[in-house]
Design brief:
Chain C: One of its GO terms (cellular component) is cytoplasm. The complex is a heterotetramer of chains A (about 210), B (about 120), C (about 425) and D (about 1000). Chain A is of the alpha+beta class. Helices cover about 20% and strands about 30% of the residues of chain A. In chain A, the strands form two sheets. A six-stranded antiparallel β-sheet of chain A has the order 1-2-8-11-10-9. A five-stranded antiparallel β-sheet of chain A has the order 4-5-6-3-7, covered by helices on one side. Chain B contains one helix and seven strands; from the N terminus they run E-E-E-H-E-E-E-E. The chains are: A alpha+beta (about 210), B mainly beta (about 120), C alpha/beta (about 425), D alpha+beta (about 1000). The complex binds flavin-adenine dinucleotide, nicotinamide-adenine-dinucleotide (NAD), flavin mononucleotide (FMN) and zinc ion. Zinc ion binds near residues 8, 9, 59, 62 and 65 of chain B.
Chain lengths: ~210, ~120, ~425, ~1000
């Protein structure tokens, strides 16, 4: 049960679905950490603290027991963990990695995780990104930072160990979450989703 | 729309990248000793070749790493991608016969849209 | 030179138009000239014309690697204005604007100079502040400029959406009434015709492949049609300026980028003026033939292919649909690209070089069309006298060493 | 019910069981589903549908598809009006309304036709030679010309229809679903490759649909059946996407193609799904591309070849077989190659009578001759059409031998079917930057050298026979799949039973020779823009000898069809006239789009709400509920001020500004850029990117700094705090955040990797509330768990970590207002909670929310600069008279060397000063200029600088302003003037910039 004082930027939005074809929902407050450091240096600590040493290949993830390690760059991983476990994990990592060149930053509130599921989920996403999201090309476990709509974000196909039941997860900076939410609803219209209006998009108040 | 091969993430759409201009320009360590002319050269002057150009790209939407590329600016064909700090590899390119001219294929500009008799058919790569 | 007029047109009409001669003479290069101008765009031809007309230097050859007007002159959206911020820019662009006013008659060639007004829209307070600063600077420099509020914008150009409910509402705009557009090909042909009549040779399909120097001075140019002797070489090659400079080892701060433009299908008059917007990044006018002529920003990478990325076009179109919501059913008929020679401070370079007799006029980037007559005029003066006049002086390459940039960037980031 | 007199009793692929009613130019017509506007109009007996651009000549239907140059109309009205729609492409539906365009008052009586009477005076480029006189030069004439020019009208108001974009990656993209394209798609699909097949028209089949189905059997199935089977197989495959009504319009770099799908245009509005866009843009990245775009027939160029009823022979045949309409009852066929003969036989067998076959060739294949004889067709070999009659519809043609003497025969007809040879459709190939090769036998260009990963197959590659097209398609599809990494075999080519009379022994004449005087001959090359051979010849005569000049001077190929049928004839004419081979003439550039694409589709869903993201903070909704007025800063929306009922914006700002000093006020500062910097070289990194020294900044302390570009000009500013020796928290301006983060990464990764640092943006991790004013301390202490803000232990420019009801918080004692201030950071998800908590705690102090305008005013009272407002990319820290921020003692930093360049170091540069108007109630206009004289001289007026910031300050009790003024530092106390339009310059006094201090010291 998460802290009732917290508010996601998508607070007030509820799951939108067009049945089998596509469903869009938020995975609120998933814990997210940026972990920088050479993969070899950090692997033992990772294994110890998350149950996985991280993916072997670029643009992949590894998950175990609801904790996932996503490859973001050659010396950058994201840890995606159950809500409100991130602070402790960050602390543990820092102490476990003391002396090793590394850097841990909590970005839980920076990124909002929006999940997409359904037979047409990839077609919905394809309307927003030039990256190849076809299930054959972007297989379960894969990760990609890319362009989404007029912004940027990270796409992820969580594997079973992640304990996330969406086919795709889009991480988007929180100030753009509402923009993306509405864009996804628009993209899902073809499959029966209803359009949503951006918060603050209804009227523009000018000073004059 | 280019396909850019990030040395870390692989082939991606150009939209994910930011172009960083000329590569292999090392910031001088002795700026205070430099003349206005030398300093001005470093800050402002740029190679701007029609032909093989070593340039930098930033995988802004992806891994956020900077890296280098060789591209033929006469045709926009990428010839190589390589990490920061590495020297440019040797490459071959379809270059213009004259400094300001057009590459025999690939620029799509004037004068090279039609083959001359005797020019052999096929594909270039 | 044949004199063009309505009467002559009627006379020729009755005579099957057999009497019209060449607009410019075809020429094969002579062995030597007093001045060789490289580049048969608007600026190069204007330079040659003013060399002949004002300085009496008629033994001039313009060398063009393709067809005249085929470079940026043939690709630009022809926006003409002089409402620049800094004194140096205002001086040269306004000089050009004054010359444009009488140019059709002077050249006896209808360049369709249409002073229909240029709007620069402000979409936020920050832009409004910058534009107001510019309007006031313009006024003090004797450049015609005024500030319109949103309602006045709507009156001047009814297709603009001034609703408050959009992402970038229009807060106001500057208007330069004497700004406008003209017919790019006509300018090129008009200058070519007038220069040719004064004795200038215009050689097309001839590329300068090298510049020969001796003891630090120019002796001639190597071309695909042979060597041409000359003590003075004036490079006016826009996107290829760096290529020319490299031949003599002159360094420049110029980068060549693709800049794209597109036209819609022709439609009945819809857009009465020129609309430019920085925040949403698009500009638009309507040609006399009826197409909307639309441009946006450069592609960020260097290229000589006269092609750019489709992204730019897509962004430009969503901007335009946002600004002029009636246009989304209209259609893009043709898109193209040019090679623009951009300078770090978004101002041109008109300069002598360390090589005696080698002069450069370039770096006009995304916005040099409007300067064509002024640029040619000032450059001819520099080439003839070997000294920049007051208008050209701020634009030497020395400014990059001394730090005295003419930094129009902040003030007019929008392309052209 | 209106009759369809030209509908054939049977045949055609239209659905005869249903009747569709539509209107054209006020008259009601009927047709069937499957008809285009053109086929239905022809069924109704109407050929004339438009007027030409310049001479307003009647224009009929020349083609049967995208190639038609001039049969353009407006469809729909009001906000739904679509101008310049090709009747040969528009599909009819019930209720469709089409109108003639560019005519007045009507299509048949058009005043503009007067131009045609004066045609002799309107040759190519006539406008360059006249319209220079008049009181306003060209401007005198322009309005008239503009009104006459243009074609259709734009819609009357904003477009209500939605559009969308989508992206696809595929192994093989096949463009065109004719026989070649179908076979290519089939072969590639069977290998398991991801295939997209895009077809421009409503149906698959290409020219197969233009053949007599009874006479075309593939594997013993009539063509439509065979197509149906192929389509069914393709559609059944999961990895195949078959798109109809979808044009590949742009072949861009690296096999990136744009496809334009018309999703709803063919349906009446009420039948369109509200969930589907009107049109869709497919952005396709293909590993391999097969271009199977077919070939386009060319018209022949002869005197009066522009009348309605003059039609491409292939189009005439298409109308018969695809649509079941007869375009003419009495047809004269005019050909320069065998394929026209095939058309003639076909038309004859379909019920037309053939008035004659006229062929410019003298030698005709014997088999053709005997077949013609068997059908009783009169033959005029070695002859050409040299004139036509008929006003809105051709009524007859004049035929004359092309060589030697010979009388003119008048032949009555109601259709002239022209067969000038076939042009492979290489538009996309050329866009891909492949090189064309002139083929003399083909009398056309075909693909030569490829640049991208594509192959052309079938007629687009110069293969004109059906079995050849099928085989080439199969081969190309298989090869493409192979190259994409699959293992494919060409699909077996169906056994064929088909009659074909192909283009053979063509005699390409750019202009049909005639005995008329050249100056009296009007032979159209470009029917849309009224370009005649005479215009092209005049262009050459006047020196426009480059094909590019000829194009631009005459406007040939510059219309909405981009010269699909005109260009090759124009090139050939230039080649003939200049006596230079085709490859030397070259071609004009084939540019995107292949056919015009709506702006709406290019913009896709990225308009309106989705145009550009609006970024909001966690407190955004609160701001909206509290009457904030917003301003965009970067992509963010920030409150400018919070208006109380009945209050003006100015009043609100004054109120907020007072509260922020005398009481307590709070600003949402979440949008500031924040970067977490860690690494052993972090401190040194700061030393290099900031102008000031960071060596001594202790953990827990903060410092304000400037960043410069390498040119020495101020780039950004902000406060950076030391968290640990190797760990810093940097803030940047809101607008500069993204740029600065990238800029820092650049230096960190590429110049100084040895500093071993990591940068992570944390902008949105933290929500920030900035409290300002006397009572701010009390509020902070109240909300924090056990926090003592005693300045002795919590001094200015330091921070503390604490908690607020257990929520981790970081509090900075920094101030941009000069008043006592605290910046409270909490994880963003607690932002709104924090904000509301602050208001709860602050209620007893009358806490006031304030916006950016107030913040700007407050900082100006203190003389703090805003980068981007008081600087503009030409300003150094010294120009801001902030020499203290530039450390001379530390080593190099970015931009340092530039500060000592001769011009950057000059003393008379513009420097930031305060300005006080002599009349304290008078506010200067931001952007106004400073001059040294009481009266404004005549332009150019020497300008000393300009006002960068100007406010009415409640705390100073008067107006204040900041300005950049030449040599300003040395002008303290001077009297200067600030200009204003239409008024006398305003006298001002030059002061220091810290107005609060000035006031304290009694100088104000
Ligand atoms: C899409 C686009 C839109 C634009 N819009 C505007 C606008 O609205 N307003 C505005 O003011 N400006 C605009 N510009 C900028 C403007 O077009 C240019 O600044 C201006 O036309 C430059 O003229 P020019 O004569 O110097 O160059 P060009 O017309 O490019 O002429 C240079 C010539 O040099 C020739 N050349 C190059 N190398 C050689 C060689 N080695 N030998 C011989 N010849 C050589 C080239 O072939 C070319 O013809 C735009 C530019 C583009 C591309
Ligand atoms: N009689 C002759 O001399 C002659 C000459 C040429 C062709 N032909 C016949 O024409 C047929 C040619 O077959 P094919 O398959 O090569 O071509 P095709 O003309 O049958 O098919 C081409 C298809 O491509 C489509 N198309 C064209 N451009 C497109 C674009 N940009 N985007 C999407 N679709 C596009 C067209 O709508 C058409 O359906 C054969 O039957 C051949 O015999 C006959
Ligand atoms: C102001 C302006 C108006 C134009 N109008 C048209 C037009 O009406 N029709 C057209 O086909 N092209 C038009 N063009 C584009 C040219 O056909 C051509 O694309 C451009 O000159 C670049 O040359 P290129 O495409 O041959 O490389 C126009 C170009 C400009 C600069
Ligand atoms: Zn990458």
């Amino acid at each position: 049960m998460s802290d009732a004082r917290r508010r996601s930027p998508l607070h007030g939005r509820s799951e939108i679905s067009s049945g089998e074809a596509a469903t869009v929902r938020e995975h609120a407050f998933l814990g997210k950490l940026v972990l920088r450091g050479a993969p070899g240096d950090i692997a033992p600590a990772l294994r110890e603290l998350t149950g996985t040493a991280g993916p072997e290949d670029a643009c992949r993830s590894a998950s175990s027991n609801g904790r996932s390690v996503l490859w973001i760059g050659p010396d950058e991983h994201w840890l995606v963990v159950p809500a409100e476990t991130e602070i402790e994990l960050a602390r543990d990592l820092d102490s476990r990695l003391a002396g090793v060149r590394h850097h841990v930053v909590d970005v839980t509130d920076y990124h909002v995780a929006i999940g997409l599921s359904g037979t047409k989920a990839w077609e919905v996403l394809a309307k927003l990104t030039p990256f190849d999201v076809h299930p054959k090309a972007f297989a379960v476990g894969a990760v990609a930072g890319t362009v989404i709509g007029r912004g940027q974000g990270v796409l992820w196909r969580p594997a079973e160990g992640s304990a996330l039941d969406s086919d795709y997860i889009v991480f988007i900076r929180s100030s753009m979450a509402d923009y993306l939410w509405c864009l996804l609803a628009e993209a899902g219209r073809q499959f029966g989703m209803t359009p949503e209006t951006p918060i603050g998009g209804e009227t523009w108040r000018l000073a004059r | 729309m280019f396909v850019i091969t990030c040395p870390y993430c692989g082939e991606r759409d150009q939209a994910e990248f930011v172009s960083g201009g000329q590569a292999h320009r090392t910031r001088p360590l002795n700026a205070h000793e430099m003349s206005d002319a030398d300093w001005g050269d470093w800050v402002f002057m740029r190679d701007n070749p029609k032909g093989i150009f070593a340039e930098r790209w930033f995988h802004s939407a992806g891994c956020r790493r900077w890296f280098n590329a060789l591209r033929n600016t006469a045709t926009d064909q990428f010839l190589a991608f390589y990490p920061m700090g590495e020297a440019p590899p040797a490459v071959e390119a379809v270059l213009p016969a004259t400094p300001a001219g057009e590459a025999p294929i690939g620029s799509g500009n004037d004068a090279v849209k039609v083959m001359r008799p005797g020019e052999s058919e096929g594909t270039t790569t | 030179m044949d004199r063009y007029s309505a009467i002559r047109l009627i006379r020729e009409g009755l005579n099957g138009h057999k009497g019209w001669g060449r607009i410019w003479r075809g020429a094969t290069p002579k062995a030597s000239y007093d001045v060789v101008v490289i580049g048969g765009g608007g600026h190069g031809l204007a330079t040659a014309y003013y060399l002949a007309k004002i300085h009496g230097i008629t033994n001039v050859c313009v060398i063009e690697k393709g067809w005249i007007g085929g470079g940026n002159s043939g690709r630009n959206t022809t926006i003409i204005r002089s409402n620049y911020l800094f004194d140096a820019s205002a001086a040269i662009y306004n000089h050009a604007l004054e010359l444009w006013k009488g140019l059709g008659r002077e050249l006896n060639f209808n360049i369709m100079m249409s002073h229909r007004g240029v709007l620069n829209l402000a979409h936020d307070e920050h832009e409004a502040r910058g534009l107001k600063r510019r309007v006031e600077a313009n006024r003090l420099n004797g450049v015609d400029a005024e500030w319109l509020d949103a309602k006045q914008v709507k009156e001047f150009c009814p297709v603009i959406n001034i609703s408050h409910d959009i992402r970038y509402p229009v807060l106001g705009a500057t208007l330069q009434r004497s700004g406008g557009v003209n017919r790019h090909d006509a300018v090129v042909w008009g200058y070519a015709r007038a220069a040719s009549a004064l004795g200038v040779d215009i050689v097309e399909q001839c590329e300068v492949t090298d510049i020969r120097t001796e003891a630090g001075a120019v002796t001639g140019v190597e071309t695909t049609k042979g060597f041409i002797r000359t003590p003075k070489v004036a490079s006016v090659t826009a996107g290829h300026t760096s290529v020319m400079a490299k031949m003599v080892g002159v360094k420049l701060p110029i980068e060549s980028h693709p800049l794209q433009a597109l036209v819609s299908e022709p439609i009945k008059p819809l857009v009465p003026c020129v609309i430019m917007s920085n925040a949403v990044h698009v500009y638009c006018s309507q040609s006399d033939k009826g197409e909307l002529v639309i441009g946006a920003g450069i592609d960020a990478y260097n290229s000589y292919t006269q092609r750019g990325s489709m992204d730019i076009i897509e962004h430009q179109m969503s901007s335009l649909c946002e600004l002029l919501p009636v246009v989304s059913r209209l259609r893009m008929m043709r898109q193209w690209g040019g090679i623009v020679d951009t300078c770090p401070d978004a101002s041109p370079i008109i300069t002598k070089t360390k090589v005696k007799g080698f002069y450069i006029n370039g770096g006009w980037g995304t916005g040099g069309w409007k300067a064509t007559p002024g640029s040619g005029h000032a450059f001819a003066d520099l080439v003839a006298r070997d000294e920049p006049n007051a208008i050209a002086a701020p634009f030497t390459v020395d400014r990059f060493y001394s730090g005295d940039l003419v930094a129009e960037h902040g003030a007019a980031a929008v392309a052209h | 019910m209106t009759s369809q007199p030209f509908r054939l009793p049977q045949g055609g692929l239209v659905d005869r069981s249903r009747l569709v009613t539509f209107r054209f130019d006020g008259r009601e017509y009927t047709g069937h589903p499957g008809d285009t506007l053109a086929s239905a109009l022809i069924a109704g007996g109407t050929h004339m549908v438009a007027r030409s651009f310049k001479y307003h000549r009647p224009r009929g239907i020349l083609g049967a598809g995208v190639e038609d140059p001039a049969a353009l109309v407006e469809i729909g009205s009001g906000i739904h009006r679509d101008p310049n729609v090709r009747v040969t492409e528009a599909e009819i539906h019930d209720g469709l309304e089409a109108h003639a365009q560019n005519v007045w008052p009507s299509l048949t009586f058009d005043v503009g036709e007067a131009n045609d009477l004066l045609w002799r005076f309107f040759p190519a480029g006539f406008y360059y030679k006249t319209f220079m006189g008049g009181p306003r030069g060209w401007m005198t004439w322009e309005p008239f010309i503009r009104r006459a020019a243009g074609m259709g009208r734009a819609p009357d108001g904003p477009d209500p229809d939605p559009y969308e974009q989508t992206n696809r990656h595929c192994d093989v993209l096949v463009v065109g679903a004719g026989p070649a394209g179908l076979m290519a798609a089939l072969s590639a699909a069977r290998s398991g490759a991801r295939v997209i097949l895009a077809e421009e028209t409503a149906a698959l089949g290409g020219r197969l649909l233009s053949r007599d189905p009874a006479a075309t059997h593939l594997d013993d199935r009539a063509a439509p059946e065979w197509i149906g089977a192929v389509a069914a197989e393709l559609r059944s495959r999961e990895d195949v996407t078959v798109l109809t009504r979808t044009s590949a319009f742009g072949y861009y770099g690296e096999n990136f193609l744009g496809l334009w799908e018309r999703v709803g245009d063919h349906l009446p509005r009420h039948e369109r799904s509200p969930n589907l866009p009107r049109q869709r843009l497919w952005r396709v990245r293909a590993k391999q591309v097969v271009l199977a775009t077919g070939a386009i027939e060319r018209p022949l160029v002869f005197h009066e070849n522009d009348r309605p009823g003059i039609m491409l022979a292939s189009a005439a045949v298409t109308y018969v077989h695809r649509y079941g309409v007869l375009p003419g009852r009495n047809v004269l066929v005019f050909a320069n190659n065998d394929s026209g003969w095939g058309a003639a036989f076909d038309l004859a067998e379909s019920g037309a009578s053939i008035a004659a076959i006229v062929d410019v060739r003298r030698e005709i294949d014997g088999a053709l001759l005997s077949r013609a004889a068997a059908l009783g067709i009169a033959i005029h070999a070695g002859c050409g059409v040299v004139g036509t009659s008929g006003r809105f519809r051709v009524t007859g043609a004049k035929v004359q031998p092309v060589e030697g003497a010979g009388g003119v025969s008048d032949i009555a007809c109601d259709l002239v079917a022209v067969a000038g040879g076939w042009t492979p459709n290489t538009a996309l190939f050329a866009q891909s930057r492949g090189k064309l090769r002139w083929d003399d036998d083909l009398a056309a260009y075909r693909p030569g050298l490829s640049w991208q990963k594509e192959a052309s197959a079938g007629a687009s590659n110069g293969v004109f026979d059906l079995s050849g097209c099928l085989a080439a398609g199969a081969e190309a599809g298989a090869r493409a799949a192979d190259a994409a990494g699959f293992s494919a075999v060409p699909a077996p080519v169906p056994a064929l039973r088909a009659e074909e009379t192909l283009q053979r022994s063509i005699h390409f004449v750019a202009e049909v020779p005639s005995h008329r005087k050249p100056e009296d001959t009007r032979a159209w090359v470009d029917l849309q823009d009224d370009v005649t051979t005479k215009d092209l010849k005049l262009a050459l005569q006047e020196g426009m000898q480059s094909i590019e000049h000829a194009k631009r001077y005459t406007t040939t190929g510059m219309g909405t069809d981009q010269g699909k049928v005109a260009n090759l004839n124009a090139f050939r004419l230039v080649s003939d006239k200049l006596g230079r081979p085709m490859h030397e003439i070259g071609t004009t550039t084939s540019r995107q789009p292949w056919k015009p694409v709506t702006f709406g589709a290019l913009a896709g869903q990225h308009v309106g709400h989705h145009f550009h993201p609006r970024r909001g903070t966690p407190m955004h909704d609160w701001h909206r509920r509290h009457s904030a007025v917003f301003e965009p800063v970067g992509d963010w929306l920030r409150p400018r001020a919070f208006l109380k009922a009945g209050e003006s914006f100015e009043q609100a700002v004054q109120r907020e500004a007072r509260a922020a000093r005398e009481g307590v006020a709070v600003l949402d500062a979440t949008t500031l850029g924040k970067i977490d910097i860690q690494g052993k070289g972090a401190r040194e990194f700061l030393n290099r990117v900031y102008t000031s020294a960071w060596t001594k900044l202790a953990p827990g302390r903060c410092r304000y700094g400037f960043m410069l570009g390498e040119d020495g000009m101020v780039l950004d500013d902000g406060v950076t705090s030391c968290i640990a020796d190797d760990h810093f928290h940097m803030t940047t301006t809101t607008g500069g955040a993204a740029r600065i983060y990238q800029w820092l990464e650049d230096y960190a990764q590429t110049e100084w990797p040895d500093l071993e640092l990591y940068l992570t943006s944390v902008t949105e991790q933290w929500a920030v509330a900035s409290l300002s004013g006397r009572d701010s301390r009390a509020v902070v202490e109240e909300i924090c768990d056990d926090f003592d803000a005693d300045p002795a232990t919590f001094p200015f420019m330091s921070f503390r970590d604490t908690t607020i009801e257990g929520v981790p918080a970081r509090i900075f004692r920094i101030s941009f207002t000069g008043a006592l201030s605290y910046e409270i950071n909490v994880p963003a998800s607690y932002g709104l909670w924090l904000w509301e908590k602050i208001f709860e705690a602050g209620a007893r102090f009358g806490i006031t929310p304030y916006g950016t305008e107030t913040m700007h005013l407050l900082r100006a009272e203190k003389g703090f600069v805003i980068v981007g407002q008081d600087t503009d990319g030409t300003v150094t820290p010294h120009d801001l008279r902030m020499d203290w921020i530039v450390s001379d003692t530390k080593g190099d930093f970015i931009g340092k060397r530039s500060l000592s360049r001769s011009d950057t170091a000059r003393a008379d540069r513009k420097q930031l000063v305060g300005l006080l108007t002599e009349d304290p109630g008078l506010m200067l206009e931001e952007g106004a200029h400073v001059i040294a004289t009481e009266n404004e001289p005549a332009p150019p007026v020497p300008m000393l600088g300009h006002v960068t910031s100007s406010y009415l300050s409640p705390n100073i009790g008067r107006s204040i302003a900041l300005a950049l003024v030449a040599g300003g530092g040395d002008r303290m106390g001077d009297r200067l003037w600030v200009t204003r339009p239409g008024g006398a310059p305003i006298p001002v006094r030059v002061t220091e910039t810290d107005f609060l201090k000035l006031k304290e010291e009694g100088h104000v």
